[in-house]
Amino acid sequence: MATSMFFEFLLDSLPKLLDGLQVTFLLTIVAILAGFLIGVTLALGRIYGNKIISGICIGFIEVIRGTPLLVQLFIIYFGLASIGLVFSPIQAALFGLSLNSSAYQAEYLRGSIQAIPSGQMVAARTLGMTKIQSIGTIVLPQALRISIPAWSNELIYLFKYTSIAYLIQVRELTAEGQIIASRNFRYVEIYLIIALIYLIFTFIISEIVDRAEKRFHVPGLGVPKRASWLRNT
Amino acid sequence: MRGLAVTIELTLLSMLCASTLAIMMAFGRSYGKQPLPFIALIYEKIFRGIPLIVIFILVYFGLAQIGILIDAFSAAIIGLALHSTAYQIQIYRSAINSIPEGQVIAAQSLGMSKLQAIRYILLPQMLRLSIPGWSNEFTIILKDTSIAIAIGVVELMRQGRYVIVREPSVALYILLVVALIYFIFVFTINRGLSYLEKRYHISGLEITKAR
Amino acid sequence: MPMLDVKNIHKSFETTEVLKGISFSMEKEETKVIIGTSGTGKSTLLRCLNQLDPPDEGEVWLDGEELTNPSIDINRIRQKIGFVFQDFNLFNHLTALRNVSIGLEKVKQLNKEKARERAMDELKRVGLEKQINQYPAQLSGGQKQRVGIARALAMDPDIILFDEPTSALDPELIGDVLDVMKSLYGKVAMLIVTHEMGFARNVADEIIFMEGGVIVEKGPPKQMFQSPTKQRTKEFLGRIATLYGAE
Fold first, then answer.
1. Residue B50 located in a structural domain
2. Which residues contact C2 (CB under 8 A, 6 or more apart)?
3. How many structural domains is chain B composed of?
4. pLDDT in tens, C180-238
5. Predicted confidence (pLDDT) per residue in A170-216, tens digit
6. Mean pLDDT, residues A213-222
7. C31: three-class secondary structure by DSSP
8. Do A72 and B169 touch (CB under 8 A)?
């Protein structure tokens, strides 16, 4: 293909792709935030809850982590529809991605909380803090800082895995590409562009989070490098 | 349950390809001469930055467009392997890096060549150290095979969908069964591999366990 | 012709010149001890000899072969030069026995059974017949170092280089290792970097005092300890005596 034709093609498809990218971002941001809130709850429930609460949290986390995201999205979108609970594709995707991410985030957080010496909790209690106060003011802030690298991984995974929402008809980046490509069969061109878009943004996200990590660094509160090679989703 | 067999085949074959490729690249990155480390690094950055589904589509439709026709099953294996390799390089690399350099020096001072030192001293230690990361990756690949539905591989997930299309009223039930099957597999793999880890455990040879 | 001949070795790391022209030679089954303050290039010298850190300048000859010649098969030569490390460098995934036998199997191409027997003999020789199936992490520092010595011995080297073999050990474990080394006297050539002055005085045929990348003085222990000719040597030995207690 001639260069000029390629650019024409690029200009034609770019607006559609940017629409898709917006949806991708929406999914990512909502899922990471909602997943974070649910994840914190799950982690605290798992560690500090009584037997029943802790059991429920463990069960939820294990089931979510033990099944593919796609299956979860299908259950929410097709499965629940069959018993009368109908979601739009985007609702189903937001719901599914948030729940999925919450289980992984809960596990990171749990690791971080358990990495904090128990003496911290004891010291807080001897100051007269309640258990909830100690968790909220002493343990959790430290744990959150330690979690930043894992959390940044999660953000990037989520950004990439929102592409799966395409399979339940959400019109995000990958889906828009499919629509364009099915019209003119230029799969290579369109998907190389999409790949490039994903690459650029994963790079930008990891740069931003790296900066954040340095910014919130507290001397002596080291991040154990151990889990950096594990992927989560 | 033909879909299940396909899922398992996909998982095992792509795991095999990815591990082999990743081990070579990991050694290339740590012990190879330029440009080997650089190539491995670029490979890692690229394939970690692109969603699996996009890789699938590029491999399947992309290769077809330039005249190389392969079936969806092969395309899925290639896609999964390319993707997983990028992650596994890190697993093996951190294992290699946690082995003290003195081990290689000692091997060389016994008269071993660099390749012999890698083969007899580094590789066995690296493989044992990688088991936790490797088992984690195994379950991820298993789950990721479900995405092969995007290019029409008839694996577990697609089989489930066929049934749903025929009888929409039981969709939830069918999907829950599919989920259960995945769950059982993931659970079994995790258990099996942590048994393996204990079995081949050597005291003093461990990596701080993640999670 | 001496067995080992070292001629005018120079070695720099980046801009610092660590070795500034070292020459000495050793005969078969001779034992020499190198002493001197830390950071004076003693360990680097040992690594220059078996080409782990090839010297920038100068020659190393062993049995009439020039090791500094780039075309030589250094892996063949290294079998003839045993090396005992300060921090042991045992192979962590192998038992004591396999640590000793792996070189025999993979480098000397002995069959498994022969390699095993030989490794057993060497471990017996260093007094570890009970520990053959233990992994490095299950051994004490002194035991680890004795495995390290057995591993070097098993290759039938012409010479063994010891790089501060007892520095990483607790004081009460040093004796066992030194005893093993003493028992090797006269059976294999040894070049030992150490701070154990008592050992140096009793075992060495010659003592080499190094400082600032050069050999300041060398001679038989008696002469070195009682009437060193150089002022630097006197000062060093005086300091060592106060540090480690006079002998």
1. yes
2. C25, C26, C27
3. 1
4. 999 999 899 999 999 888 888 888 999 999 998 899 999 999 888 888 888 888 888 88
5. 888 888 888 887 777 777 888 888 889 899 988 888 888 878 777 77
6. 66
7. strand
8. no
Please count the CA atoms within 13 angstroms of the CA of C131 that sit on its side-chain side: 25
Residue B6 belongs to domain spanning? 2-199
Domains annotated on chain A, with CATH: 2-215 (1.10.3720.10)
Q: Is the peptide bond before B35 cis (omega within 30 degrees of 0)?
A: yes
The reply to whether C138 touches chain B by the CB within 8 Å rule is yes
Interstrand relation of C206-211 and C31-35 (parallel, antiparallel or unpaired): parallel
Q: Where are the alpha helices (DSSP H) in chain B?
A: 2-31, 36-49, 52-57, 63-65, 72-97, 101-109, 114-116, 123-144, 156-166, 171-199
CA angle B31, B34, B35 (to 5 degrees): 120
Distance of alpha carbon C147 from alpha carbon C134, whole angstroms: 11
Give the SS3 label for residue C20: strand
Cα–chain-centroid distance for residue A103?
A: 10
**B6 Cα to chain A: minimum distance (Å):** 16
Which ipTM was obtained for this model?
Answer: 0.80
User: B20 lies in a domain?
Assistant: yes
- pLDDT tens per residue, range C63-83: 989 988 888 888 888 889 999
Helix %, strand %, coil % for chain A, to 5?
Answer: 85, 0, 15
Instruction: List subunits contacting chain A, requiring 3 or more Cβ pairs under 8 Å.
Output: B
CA distance A154 to A233: 8
**CA distances to A153, B131, C93, C176, C189 from B201, in Å:** 29, 10, 9, 30, 39
Nearest CA to B127 among B201, B40, B25? Answer: B201
Say yes or no: C52 contacts chain B, CB-CB below 8 A. Answer: yes
Contacts of residue B105, Cβ cutoff 8 Å, sequence gap at least 6: C52, C85, C89
| B19 Cα to chain A: minimum distance (Å) | 15
Q: CA triplet B120, C80, C152: central angle to 5 degrees?
A: 60
| Helix axes of C112-125 and C96-106: crossing angle, nearest 10 degrees | 130
Residue C85 to residue B102, Cβ atoms within 8 A: yes
pLDDT along chain B (211 residues), means of 10: 80 91 88 83 88 88 80 89 91 87 88 88 88 86 86 74 73 83 86 78 51 27
* Average pLDDT value over all residues in chain A: 82
Does B15 fall in a domain? yes
Helix axes B36-49, A187-215, angle to 10 degrees: 100
C78/B107 touch (CB, cutoff 8 Å), yes or no: no
Residue B83 sits in a domain whose CATH number is 1.10.3720.10
Q: Which of B50, B94, B182, B185 to mutate against chain A (most A CBs within 10 Å)?
A: B50
Residues of C with Cβ-Cβ distance to B124 under 8 angstroms? 93
A231:B144 CB<8 A:
no
Interchain CB distance below 8 Å, B202 and C137: yes
Strand partners, C217: C209
B30, two tokens: 């740590």
Residue B204 is assigned to a structural domain of this protein: no
- Cα A182 to Cα B36, B175, B206: the distances in Å are 38, 29, 51
- Helical (H) or strand (E) element with A82: helix A80-82
Token output for B127 = 């493989």
Cα B124 from Cα C182, distance rounded (Å) = 35
**pLDDT, mean of residues A11-36:** 87
